[in-house]
Amino acid sequence: MLTSLTLMDVQNLENGALAAVAGADSADEIERVRVEYLGRKSELKLALRDVRDRESGMALNTLRERLETAIDGREQELRRAELDRQLTQDVLDVTLPGEERRLGSLHPTTLTRRIVEDAFLGLGYEVIDDREVETVHYNFDQLAFPPAHPSRSHRDTFFIDPVRLLRTETSPSQIHVMEGKKPPIYMVSLGRVYRRDAPDATHFPIFHQFEGLAVDRDIKLADLKGTLRHVMRALFGDERQVRFRTHYFPFTEPSIEPDVSCPICDMRGCRMCKYTGWIELGGAGMVNPQVFVNVGIDPEEWTGFAFGCGIERAAQLRHGISEIRPFWENDLRVLRQF
Ligand SMILES: [Zn+2]
Q1: Distance 315 CA to ligand 1 centre (A)
Q2: Tell me: the pLDDT tens digits for 21-48?
Q3: How far is the CA of 245 from the centre of ligand 1 (A)?
Q4: pLDDT tens digits along 232-252
Q5: Do 121 and 188 sit in the same domain of this protein?
Q6: Mean pLDDT of 225-233
Q7: Cα(108) to centroid of ligand 1, in Å?
Q8: Ligand 1 centroid vs 229 CA: distance in angstroms?
Q9: DSSP readout, 230-258?
Q10: What is the DSSP letter of 141?
Protein backbone atom coordinates (compact mmCIF):
# COMPACT_ATOMS: atom_id res chain seq x y z
CA MET A 1 0.00 0.00 0.00
CA LEU A 2 1.50 3.28 -1.04
CA THR A 3 -1.39 5.32 0.20
CA SER A 4 -1.68 6.80 3.63
CA LEU A 5 -4.42 4.24 4.41
CA THR A 6 -3.46 0.65 5.30
CA LEU A 7 -5.83 -2.24 4.69
CA MET A 8 -6.58 -2.18 8.41
CA ASP A 9 -7.38 1.48 8.18
CA VAL A 10 -9.74 0.77 5.31
CA GLN A 11 -11.53 -1.88 7.35
CA ASN A 12 -11.83 0.45 10.35
CA LEU A 13 -13.09 3.25 8.14
CA GLU A 14 -15.75 0.96 6.66
CA ASN A 15 -16.85 -0.27 10.10
CA GLY A 16 -17.12 3.29 11.42
CA ALA A 17 -19.01 4.48 8.36
CA LEU A 18 -21.49 1.61 8.38
CA ALA A 19 -22.16 2.15 12.11
CA ALA A 20 -22.81 5.86 11.43
CA VAL A 21 -25.17 4.97 8.56
CA ALA A 22 -27.10 2.54 10.74
CA GLY A 23 -27.30 5.10 13.54
CA ALA A 24 -28.63 7.91 11.33
CA ASP A 25 -32.35 8.30 11.88
CA SER A 26 -33.21 11.42 9.94
CA ALA A 27 -32.60 12.87 6.50
CA ASP A 28 -30.35 15.53 8.00
CA GLU A 29 -28.21 12.96 9.79
CA ILE A 30 -27.77 10.71 6.77
CA GLU A 31 -26.69 13.76 4.78
CA ARG A 32 -24.17 14.59 7.50
CA VAL A 33 -22.80 11.01 7.34
CA ARG A 34 -22.53 11.29 3.54
CA VAL A 35 -20.49 14.49 3.82
CA GLU A 36 -18.31 13.05 6.57
CA TYR A 37 -17.39 9.81 4.75
CA LEU A 38 -17.80 10.66 1.06
CA GLY A 39 -17.44 14.45 0.95
CA ARG A 40 -14.58 16.27 -0.77
CA LYS A 41 -12.61 16.54 2.45
CA SER A 42 -13.39 13.05 3.74
CA GLU A 43 -10.56 10.66 4.63
CA LEU A 44 -11.58 8.37 1.75
CA LYS A 45 -11.62 11.12 -0.91
CA LEU A 46 -8.25 12.45 0.23
CA ALA A 47 -6.82 8.91 0.10
CA LEU A 48 -8.25 8.35 -3.40
CA ARG A 49 -6.56 11.52 -4.54
CA ASP A 50 -3.21 10.27 -3.29
CA VAL A 51 -3.53 6.69 -4.62
CA ARG A 52 -0.50 5.45 -6.57
CA ASP A 53 -1.14 1.74 -7.23
CA ARG A 54 -3.94 -0.26 -8.80
CA GLU A 55 -4.61 -2.49 -5.79
CA SER A 56 -5.12 0.37 -3.41
CA GLY A 57 -7.22 2.22 -5.94
CA MET A 58 -9.51 -0.76 -6.39
CA ALA A 59 -9.81 -1.30 -2.64
CA LEU A 60 -10.71 2.34 -1.99
CA ASN A 61 -13.11 2.51 -4.92
CA THR A 62 -14.87 -0.64 -3.75
CA LEU A 63 -15.18 0.89 -0.29
CA ARG A 64 -16.59 4.08 -1.83
CA GLU A 65 -19.21 2.08 -3.75
CA ARG A 66 -20.21 0.07 -0.67
CA LEU A 67 -20.57 3.23 1.41
CA GLU A 68 -22.62 4.94 -1.31
CA THR A 69 -24.92 1.94 -1.51
CA ALA A 70 -25.30 1.80 2.28
CA ILE A 71 -26.01 5.53 2.56
CA ASP A 72 -28.52 5.54 -0.34
CA GLY A 73 -30.26 2.48 1.13
CA ARG A 74 -30.52 4.08 4.58
CA GLU A 75 -31.82 7.27 3.06
CA GLN A 76 -34.60 5.41 1.26
CA GLU A 77 -35.50 3.53 4.44
CA LEU A 78 -35.81 6.82 6.30
CA ARG A 79 -37.97 8.28 3.52
CA ARG A 80 -40.33 5.31 3.60
CA ALA A 81 -40.55 5.50 7.39
CA GLU A 82 -41.40 9.20 7.19
CA LEU A 83 -44.07 8.50 4.60
CA ASP A 84 -45.53 5.73 6.76
CA ARG A 85 -45.57 8.07 9.73
CA GLN A 86 -47.39 10.74 7.71
CA LEU A 87 -49.90 8.22 6.40
CA THR A 88 -50.77 6.95 9.86
CA GLN A 89 -50.55 10.19 11.83
CA ASP A 90 -51.73 12.90 9.47
CA VAL A 91 -55.06 11.28 8.88
CA LEU A 92 -57.78 13.67 7.75
CA ASP A 93 -60.72 13.24 10.07
CA VAL A 94 -63.62 14.39 7.95
CA THR A 95 -65.92 14.52 10.98
CA LEU A 96 -63.91 17.34 12.58
CA PRO A 97 -65.23 20.89 12.11
CA GLY A 98 -63.47 22.64 9.22
CA GLU A 99 -61.26 25.67 9.49
CA GLU A 100 -63.36 28.78 9.41
CA ARG A 101 -62.68 30.97 6.42
CA ARG A 102 -63.54 34.58 6.95
CA LEU A 103 -65.70 35.89 4.16
CA GLY A 104 -65.01 39.37 2.92
CA SER A 105 -67.74 41.96 2.82
CA LEU A 106 -68.56 44.89 0.63
CA HIS A 107 -66.97 48.23 1.45
CA PRO A 108 -69.49 50.69 2.97
CA THR A 109 -68.94 52.98 -0.01
CA THR A 110 -69.90 50.15 -2.37
CA LEU A 111 -72.91 49.21 -0.25
CA THR A 112 -74.19 52.78 -0.34
CA ARG A 113 -73.44 53.13 -4.04
CA ARG A 114 -75.52 50.03 -4.78
CA ILE A 115 -78.47 51.35 -2.80
CA VAL A 116 -78.38 54.52 -4.90
CA GLU A 117 -78.06 52.54 -8.13
CA ASP A 118 -80.98 50.30 -7.20
CA ALA A 119 -83.16 53.28 -6.25
CA PHE A 120 -82.57 54.92 -9.64
CA LEU A 121 -82.82 51.73 -11.66
CA GLY A 122 -86.21 51.32 -10.03
CA LEU A 123 -87.18 54.75 -11.39
CA GLY A 124 -86.06 53.77 -14.89
CA TYR A 125 -82.76 55.68 -14.87
CA GLU A 126 -79.70 54.60 -16.82
CA VAL A 127 -76.63 54.06 -14.58
CA ILE A 128 -73.33 55.41 -15.94
CA ASP A 129 -69.71 55.02 -14.81
CA ASP A 130 -67.78 57.61 -16.77
CA ARG A 131 -64.14 58.72 -17.31
CA GLU A 132 -62.25 60.35 -14.43
CA VAL A 133 -59.81 62.37 -16.56
CA GLU A 134 -61.80 65.22 -18.04
CA THR A 135 -61.20 68.40 -19.97
CA VAL A 136 -61.76 71.95 -18.79
CA HIS A 137 -64.36 72.10 -21.55
CA TYR A 138 -66.53 69.36 -20.05
CA ASN A 139 -65.73 69.88 -16.38
CA PHE A 140 -66.35 73.65 -16.32
CA ASP A 141 -67.19 75.39 -19.62
CA GLN A 142 -70.11 73.20 -20.67
CA LEU A 143 -71.50 73.31 -17.14
CA ALA A 144 -71.71 77.12 -17.24
CA PHE A 145 -69.04 77.73 -14.59
CA PRO A 146 -68.17 81.47 -14.75
CA PRO A 147 -64.59 82.16 -15.99
CA ALA A 148 -63.47 83.33 -12.52
CA HIS A 149 -65.12 80.53 -10.53
CA PRO A 150 -62.68 79.41 -7.77
CA SER A 151 -63.06 75.72 -8.76
CA ARG A 152 -61.18 76.50 -11.99
CA SER A 153 -57.98 77.38 -10.08
CA HIS A 154 -55.00 75.11 -9.58
CA ARG A 155 -55.48 75.46 -5.86
CA ASP A 156 -58.84 73.70 -5.96
CA THR A 157 -58.44 71.27 -8.85
CA PHE A 158 -55.85 68.68 -9.96
CA PHE A 159 -54.76 69.74 -13.43
CA ILE A 160 -52.83 67.29 -15.63
CA ASP A 161 -52.02 69.97 -18.20
CA PRO A 162 -53.70 73.26 -19.11
CA VAL A 163 -56.71 71.51 -20.68
CA ARG A 164 -57.00 68.20 -18.82
CA LEU A 165 -57.84 67.61 -15.18
CA LEU A 166 -59.19 65.05 -12.74
CA ARG A 167 -62.93 65.64 -12.73
CA THR A 168 -64.13 67.65 -9.75
CA GLU A 169 -67.65 66.30 -9.95
CA THR A 170 -69.53 63.65 -11.90
CA SER A 171 -71.48 66.34 -13.82
CA PRO A 172 -69.39 66.10 -17.03
CA SER A 173 -71.15 62.75 -17.59
CA GLN A 174 -74.38 64.68 -18.03
CA ILE A 175 -72.83 66.64 -20.89
CA HIS A 176 -71.49 63.48 -22.55
CA VAL A 177 -74.91 61.84 -22.36
CA MET A 178 -76.79 64.92 -23.60
CA GLU A 179 -74.37 65.26 -26.52
CA GLY A 180 -74.85 61.63 -27.42
CA LYS A 181 -78.62 61.23 -27.36
CA LYS A 182 -81.85 63.13 -27.68
CA PRO A 183 -84.20 63.66 -24.71
CA PRO A 184 -86.00 62.26 -22.84
CA ILE A 185 -82.96 61.45 -20.68
CA TYR A 186 -82.96 59.85 -17.25
CA MET A 187 -79.45 59.05 -16.06
CA VAL A 188 -77.44 58.74 -12.88
CA SER A 189 -73.64 58.78 -12.87
CA LEU A 190 -71.63 57.38 -9.96
CA GLY A 191 -67.89 57.44 -9.42
CA ARG A 192 -64.75 59.02 -8.04
CA VAL A 193 -64.13 62.76 -8.09
CA TYR A 194 -61.04 64.75 -7.06
CA ARG A 195 -60.49 68.03 -5.26
CA ARG A 196 -57.37 69.56 -3.77
CA ASP A 197 -58.66 69.44 -0.21
CA ALA A 198 -56.23 68.78 2.64
CA PRO A 199 -57.42 65.58 4.35
CA ASP A 200 -59.20 66.15 7.63
CA ALA A 201 -62.19 64.69 9.44
CA THR A 202 -64.67 65.72 6.75
CA HIS A 203 -62.49 66.28 3.66
CA PHE A 204 -60.44 63.97 1.49
CA PRO A 205 -58.89 64.78 -1.92
CA ILE A 206 -60.76 61.89 -3.51
CA PHE A 207 -64.32 60.81 -2.86
CA HIS A 208 -67.37 59.33 -4.61
CA GLN A 209 -70.38 61.16 -5.92
CA PHE A 210 -73.65 60.25 -7.46
CA GLU A 211 -75.23 62.68 -9.79
CA GLY A 212 -78.45 62.47 -11.71
CA LEU A 213 -80.06 64.19 -14.63
CA ALA A 214 -83.58 64.11 -15.98
CA VAL A 215 -84.53 65.88 -19.21
CA ASP A 216 -88.06 65.67 -20.50
CA ARG A 217 -91.03 67.82 -21.42
CA ASP A 218 -92.70 69.68 -18.54
CA ILE A 219 -90.27 68.62 -15.82
CA LYS A 220 -90.88 70.74 -12.74
CA LEU A 221 -89.19 71.45 -9.43
CA ALA A 222 -91.81 69.21 -7.78
CA ASP A 223 -90.51 66.25 -9.84
CA LEU A 224 -87.00 66.92 -8.55
CA LYS A 225 -88.18 67.09 -4.95
CA GLY A 226 -90.14 63.84 -5.30
CA THR A 227 -87.11 62.08 -6.81
CA LEU A 228 -84.78 63.30 -4.06
CA ARG A 229 -87.26 62.20 -1.37
CA HIS A 230 -87.37 58.75 -2.94
CA VAL A 231 -83.58 58.40 -2.90
CA MET A 232 -83.18 59.85 0.60
CA ARG A 233 -85.67 57.34 1.93
CA ALA A 234 -83.94 54.47 0.13
CA LEU A 235 -80.71 55.57 1.80
CA PHE A 236 -81.89 56.53 5.26
CA GLY A 237 -85.28 54.90 5.80
CA ASP A 238 -88.95 55.86 5.42
CA GLU A 239 -89.10 57.82 8.67
CA ARG A 240 -86.60 60.44 7.49
CA GLN A 241 -87.85 63.91 6.69
CA VAL A 242 -86.46 65.88 3.77
CA ARG A 243 -86.48 69.66 3.41
CA PHE A 244 -85.11 71.97 0.72
CA ARG A 245 -83.28 75.27 0.96
CA THR A 246 -82.46 77.62 -1.92
CA HIS A 247 -78.81 77.78 -2.99
CA TYR A 248 -76.61 78.68 -5.97
CA PHE A 249 -74.87 76.33 -8.39
CA PRO A 250 -73.63 77.40 -11.85
CA PHE A 251 -75.34 74.66 -13.84
CA THR A 252 -78.76 74.78 -12.19
CA GLU A 253 -81.27 77.62 -11.86
CA PRO A 254 -83.03 77.70 -9.47
CA SER A 255 -80.75 75.65 -7.20
CA ILE A 256 -81.69 73.93 -3.97
CA GLU A 257 -79.94 72.02 -1.23
CA PRO A 258 -81.75 69.06 0.26
CA ASP A 259 -81.45 68.45 4.00
CA VAL A 260 -82.39 65.15 5.59
CA SER A 261 -83.46 64.86 9.22
CA CYS A 262 -80.46 63.56 11.18
CA PRO A 263 -80.53 59.75 11.19
CA ILE A 264 -77.96 59.63 13.99
CA CYS A 265 -79.87 61.53 16.68
CA ASP A 266 -83.35 61.58 15.10
CA MET A 267 -83.36 65.39 15.31
CA ARG A 268 -82.55 65.60 19.02
CA GLY A 269 -79.20 67.17 18.10
CA CYS A 270 -75.73 65.63 17.83
CA ARG A 271 -72.20 66.40 16.65
CA MET A 272 -72.96 65.00 13.20
CA CYS A 273 -75.80 67.47 12.54
CA LYS A 274 -74.05 70.25 14.49
CA TYR A 275 -77.04 70.16 16.88
CA THR A 276 -79.45 71.41 14.21
CA GLY A 277 -81.28 68.11 13.66
CA TRP A 278 -80.68 68.44 9.89
CA ILE A 279 -77.90 67.24 7.60
CA GLU A 280 -77.02 68.90 4.29
CA LEU A 281 -76.83 66.42 1.48
CA GLY A 282 -75.46 67.67 -1.79
CA GLY A 283 -77.04 70.05 -4.26
CA ALA A 284 -79.76 70.05 -6.86
CA GLY A 285 -81.77 72.27 -9.15
CA MET A 286 -83.41 72.83 -12.50
CA VAL A 287 -80.90 72.61 -15.36
CA ASN A 288 -79.62 76.04 -16.41
CA PRO A 289 -81.02 76.68 -19.95
CA GLN A 290 -77.51 77.73 -21.02
CA VAL A 291 -76.32 74.18 -20.36
CA PHE A 292 -79.01 72.90 -22.76
CA VAL A 293 -77.99 75.45 -25.38
CA ASN A 294 -74.33 74.32 -25.00
CA VAL A 295 -75.24 70.76 -25.98
CA GLY A 296 -77.81 71.60 -28.64
CA ILE A 297 -81.00 70.84 -26.71
CA ASP A 298 -83.80 73.37 -27.19
CA PRO A 299 -84.61 74.84 -23.75
CA GLU A 300 -87.99 76.02 -25.06
CA GLU A 301 -89.06 72.43 -25.60
CA TRP A 302 -87.18 70.57 -22.85
CA THR A 303 -86.67 71.14 -19.15
CA GLY A 304 -84.73 69.10 -16.66
CA PHE A 305 -83.31 68.75 -13.21
CA ALA A 306 -79.96 67.64 -11.87
CA PHE A 307 -78.71 66.68 -8.44
CA GLY A 308 -75.50 65.46 -6.85
CA CYS A 309 -74.43 64.03 -3.52
CA GLY A 310 -71.31 62.56 -1.91
CA ILE A 311 -71.51 58.79 -1.49
CA GLU A 312 -69.15 58.68 1.51
CA ARG A 313 -71.23 61.39 3.14
CA ALA A 314 -74.37 59.31 2.67
CA ALA A 315 -72.52 56.22 3.97
CA GLN A 316 -71.34 58.19 7.02
CA LEU A 317 -74.94 59.02 7.85
CA ARG A 318 -76.20 55.50 7.21
CA HIS A 319 -73.64 53.97 9.54
CA GLY A 320 -73.05 56.80 12.01
CA ILE A 321 -69.40 57.31 11.03
CA SER A 322 -68.30 60.82 11.95
CA GLU A 323 -65.20 60.98 9.71
CA ILE A 324 -64.51 60.46 6.01
CA ARG A 325 -60.97 59.14 6.48
CA PRO A 326 -61.93 55.57 7.51
CA PHE A 327 -63.43 55.10 4.04
CA TRP A 328 -59.97 55.43 2.50
CA GLU A 329 -57.73 53.88 5.14
CA ASN A 330 -58.84 50.29 4.47
CA ASP A 331 -58.39 49.30 8.09
CA LEU A 332 -59.82 45.77 8.23
CA ARG A 333 -60.90 46.27 11.84
CA VAL A 334 -63.24 48.98 10.58
CA LEU A 335 -64.31 47.33 7.33
CA ARG A 336 -65.21 44.00 8.98
CA GLN A 337 -68.05 45.73 10.76
CA PHE A 338 -70.00 46.00 7.51
ZN1 LIG B 1 -77.92 64.65 14.72
Answers
A1: 15
A2: 999 988 889 999 999 999 988 888 888 8
A3: 18
A4: 889 988 888 889 998 887 778
A5: yes
A6: 91
A7: 20
A8: 19
A9: HHHHHHH-TT--EEEEEEEETTEEEEEEE
A10: G
